[in-house]
Amino acid sequence: MDLLGGSADPVAGELICSAKGCRGEARWGLLWNNPRLHTPERRKVWLACDTHREHLEQFLGARSFWKQTVPVTELERA
């Protein structure tokens, strides 16, 4: 997958929200990158349900890690 000029890591298994303690069905893929650890084009993926999408985007955004949010249907599956 090529989003923002980078490739997102494929997601595997059940699409469950990445928020701590949440077992909700993920509907969103939050693409992010830690520039201290990853090459500029790399995109890690957190999954989010509708309830936790904004919170997870804000968490990543506060650290300047968040790059883009896409529907899970657009994510590459492993």
Structural write-up:
It is a single chain. The chain has 78 residues and is α+β, with helices and mostly antiparallel strands. It has one domain. It has one helix and four strands, in the order βββαβ. The N and C termini lie close together (12 Å). The model has no long low-confidence stretch (mean pLDDT 92). This is Acetone carboxylase.
Keywords, please?
Acetone carboxylase; alpha+beta; globular; 13% helix
Report a brief summary of the structure.
This protein is of the alpha+beta class and 78 residues long. It has one helix at 53-62; strands at residues 7-8, 28-32, 42-48, 66-71.
Strand content: 25-35%
SSE succession: EEEHE
Radius of gyration from the alpha-carbon trace, in angstroms: 12 Å
Please tally the helical runs, counting DSSP H or I stretches of 4 or more residues.
Answer: 1
Helix content: 10-25%
Write down the overall mean pLDDT.
Answer: 92
Strand order of the largest sheet: 1-3-2-4
Strand count, sense and barrel status of the largest sheet are: 4 strands, mixed
Got a strand count?
4
The shape, in one word, is globular
Q: What is the number of independent domains?
A: 1
